[in-house]
Design brief:
The structure holds two protein chains of two kinds. Chain A is an all-alpha fold. Chain A has one domain. In chain A, about 75% of the residues lie in helices and about 0% in strands. In chain A, helix 4 runs antiparallel to helix 5 and helix 5 runs antiparallel to helix 7. Chain B has a domain of about 25 residues. Chain B has two helices and no strands. Classes of the chains: A mainly alpha, B mainly alpha. Chains A and B meet through helix 3, helix 4, helix 8 and helix 9 of A and helix 2 of B.
Chain lengths: ~250, ~55
């Protein structure tokens, strides 16, 4: 068993070049998927029998929520833990790159949810378990970013914020299961990994395309930010000169 | 087309939801590229002033 691939993943020059090479693939695939999902979700999918065309908000709300809670936050916390435990600079750079993307999509989740709540529930906001725990998610991201910016030294910012990211991970299952554990105003899960989905196939296809598209989009954005974060952490001149092609 | 834009009476909720999402999607692209550009500029400056360990 050779471990060279594992060591390469911790090597800033290698990751920098790999990120640059992969970005267009993720970005353009995401663009294509999102365009198909947009057309499928807004035009092809039939209106809901109860919520009419208002249900179409699901195609931006659910992917944004999936990114915010499951994909971005989990990536951030796992990367932060990896950086903290094995002292890998690249892992810290990944965690730092996640936060602004996660925060912005948490905001999208809250705003699109409000816009759905008004016609369906009769209110933009309720202090409901799901809504409140998702709002806490926004504060976690903002707290993480605020904590980072409080340090001048990047290494200390990385370590301190990593602890916050790991502690905040407890909120992930809380958001996810809030609709099950408490009597929430929010409807139950549309999708399920184990059981049957609570959605008809013509409505499901654009949702899955949209979630996949947004996930690939997140990876593309992450890779661009990651290159910036790696450059900021790098102190060795030789490969930077090469990377900037000076 | 008018019917499509009308969104079965939900136009005032559906279109702002899609609009906000599109705005954040575009802003993230802009912010990420700006971050990379700034980091490159900063690295160039450090190279020029020999602020790197060699």
């Amino acid at each position: 068993m050779t471990w060279t691939w594992f060591h390469r993943l911790g090597s800033p020059p290698y990751i920098y070049r790999l990120a640059a090479r992969l970005t267009p693939w993720f970005g353009w695939t995401a663009a294509l998927l999102l365009l198909v999902a947009l057309y499928d979700g807004l035009v092809i999918a039939p209106p809901d029998y109860q919520q009419g065309d208002g249900f179409r908000i699901i195609y931006v709300h659910v992917p944004a929520a999936t990114l915010s809670v499951m994909i971005v936050y989990t990536t951030m916390a796992l990367a932060a833990a990896t950086g903290l435990i094995w002292r890998i600079k690249v892992a810290h750079a990944v965690a730092a790159s996640c936060a602004p993307i996660g925060a912005s999509f948490t905001l999208v989740t809250l705003v699109t949810g409000s816009l759905w709540g008004k016609p369906m529930w009769g209110t933009y906001w309720a202090w409901d378990p799901r809504l409140t725990s998702e709002l806490l998610m926004l504060f976690l991201y903002l707290g993480y970013m605020g904590l980072r910016s409080a340090f001048d030294d990047l290494q200390r910012a990385d370590r301190a914020s990593a602890v916050l990211a790991i502690v905040g991970l407890v909120n992930v299952p809380i958001v996810h299961f809030s609709v099950v554990w408490w009597n929430s105003l929010h409807q139950g899960s549309t999708l399920s990994l184990s059981g049957e989905d609570n959605i008809a196939t013509p409505m499901l296809v654009p949702l899955l395309l949209s979630i996949l598209g947004f996930t690939l989009y997140f990876v593309a954005i992450l890779l661009v930010r990651l290159r910036g974060e790696i450059l900021r952490r790098e102190r060795s001149a030789s490969w930077i000169r090469e990377a900037l092609s000076l | 087309m008018t019917q499509f834009l009308h969104m079965g009476g939900y136009a005032a909720f559906v279109w702002p939801a899609y609009g906000v999402t599109l705005l954040v999607v575009l802003l993230n692209i802009f912010w990420a590229r700006r971050l990379l550009w700034q980091a490159k500029q900063e690295a160039r400056r450090r190279l020029a002033t020999q602020g790197f360990e060699t």
